[in-house]
Design brief:
Blueprint lengths: L2 E6 L3 H12 L5 E3 L5 H6 L12 E2 L11 H7 L5 H5 L6 E2 H14 L3 E3 L3 E5 L5 E5 L4 E9 L3 E3 L5 H5 L5 E2 L2 H4 L9 E5 L3 H10 L5 E5 L9 H8 L4 E4 L2 E9 L3 E9 L5 E5 L2 E4 L3 E3 L31 E3 L11 H22 L2
Parallel strand pairs: 1-2, 1-8, 2-5, 8-19, 10-17, 11-12, 11-17, 12-13
Antiparallel strand pairs: 3-4, 6-7, 7-8, 9-18, 14-15, 15-16
Helix pairs in contact: 1-5, 1-10, 8-9
The protein binds NADP nicotinamide-adenine-dinucleotide phosphate.
NADP nicotinamide-adenine-dinucleotide phosphate binds next to helix 8.
Length: 348
């Protein structure tokens, strides 16, 4: 029998959609993603990007303070370790995601720890196939697989991931290996500026490597970076090679000029890549309309409808602009309400 609604993805959008769908008696089934090495490498494990961050200070409802007692009562015992590791300041990304997952489960959401790898939206009920070979049918689908950080694609970058190469300053910047050392940030957008600003608190110096001679970032972010004595922009440059050794991990980078092909080396204890994100839409294989950057398109203003009737999208999969936990949760709620109303209109 076909499911009322299948939700694909397990960030704030997916779990909020599940909470609303479960409370609307739609008995949702969530595919939260598989725990595979490939997903670990590319940052697409269950619970999404927030599970890769530390403090979340801007999700409403979690003020600064020691909330670990509350987390212990709210989470299953197997997750009490999160409360034990608690930093006594508000909520962490992994805590927040486990709280959302638990809240969805409390209302009867069924959860599969598996990836959806193939969909057929050409006829209804829709068909979805998982990595483990499960096949499900669904009257409505909510896509909430989010986005992941881009990397440069160098072999040497791959080799030093987790040994000095990161795509998340907020997650990793405070680690001892990066403290009081020169650090590299690659990119010229708001993310690169934000990361450089953040890292400058810990590093001895931050070099922003940008391939052009002006930043893409908003003026306020760019001005802040350019005014910071600890941050230096290396204009018209790209990282040609990440340098390092087994003992120390990253020790520097080789830069190549985009103007004259000349190269030079910079000493660094780490490299943070901030060159944008890629939405996790490959499994859709062109079955819904995507933007030129492969984000899902919302086809009706102020609704989460996609180009396929009965398929809705929520969170970063359709949002390259706000990309916040709270906006993802908001559109997750919208997608569940849109799906509920659409199913009711179909008499399902
Ligand atoms: P972005 O604006 O797309 O910028 C990506 C940067 O990476 C660009 O400067 C680009 O260079 C560079 N880049 C891309 N591919 C590269 C490659 N292969 N090698 C070297 N450099 C490469 O991405 P973002 O900074 O992640 O921002 C995404 C969105 O989120 C934006 O709308 C941004 O405003 C928003 N955001 C806002 C805030 C905030 O307001 N606090 C913080 C973060 C992000 P080019 O400039 O040459 O293209």
């Amino acid at each position: 029998m076909a499911e009322h609604v299948v939700i694909v993805g397990s960030g704030p959008a997916g779990w909020t959609a599940a909470i609303y769908a479960a409370r609307a008696n739609l008995n949702p089934l969530v595919f939260e993603g598989a725990v595979t090495e490939e997903n670990r490498q590319q940052g697409t494990l269950p619970l999404g990007q927030l599970a890769l961050t530390t403090e979340v200070e801007n999700f409403p409802g979690f003020p600064a303070g020691d909330l670990s007692g509350y987390f212990k009562t709210a989470l299953d015992e197997e997750n009490h370790y999160l409360a034990d590791m608690h930093h006594k300041q508000g909520v962490s990304g992994p805590e927040l995601m486990n709280l959302m997952r638990k809240q969805a489960a409390n209302f009867g959401t069924r959860i599969e720890t598996d990836d959806i790898v193939e969909v057929d939206f050409s006829s209804r009920p829709f068909k979805l196939k998982s990595l483990e070979g499960k096949e499900v049918e669904a009257h409505a689908v909510i896509l909430a697989t989010g986005a992941r950080a881009n990397y440069l694609g160098l072999d040497s970058e791959e080799m030093y991931k987790n040994r000095g190469v990161s795509a998340c300053a907020v997650c990793d910047g405070a680690l001892p290996r990066f403290r009081n050392k020169p650090l590299i940030v690659v990119g010229g957008g708001d993310s690169a500026c934000e990361e450089a600003d953040y890292l400058a608190k810990y590093a001895s110096k931050v070099h922003i490597i940008h391939r052009r001679d002006e930043l893409r970032a908003s003026k306020v972010m760019a001005d802040r970076v350019l005014a910071n004595d600890k941050i230096q922009v290396e204009w018209n440059s790209v990282v040609d090679e990440v340098l390092g050794d087994d003992e120390n991990g990253v020790t520097g980078v080789r830069l190549k000029s985009t103007v004259d092909d000349s190269t030079r080396e910079l000493e660094a204890g780490g490299m943070f890549v901030a060159i944008g994100h890629t939405p996790n839409t490959k499994f859709l294989d062109g079955q819904i309309e995507l933007t030129d950057k492969k984000y899902a398109v919302w086809t009706v203003p102020f609704r989460t409808n996609t180009s396929v009737e009965g398929v809705f999208a929520a969170g970063d999969i359709a949002d390259s602009y706000y990309r916040q936990a709270v906006t993802a949760a908001g559109t997750g709620c919208m997608a569940a309400l849109d799906a509920e109303r659409w199913l009711a209109a179909q008499g399902i």
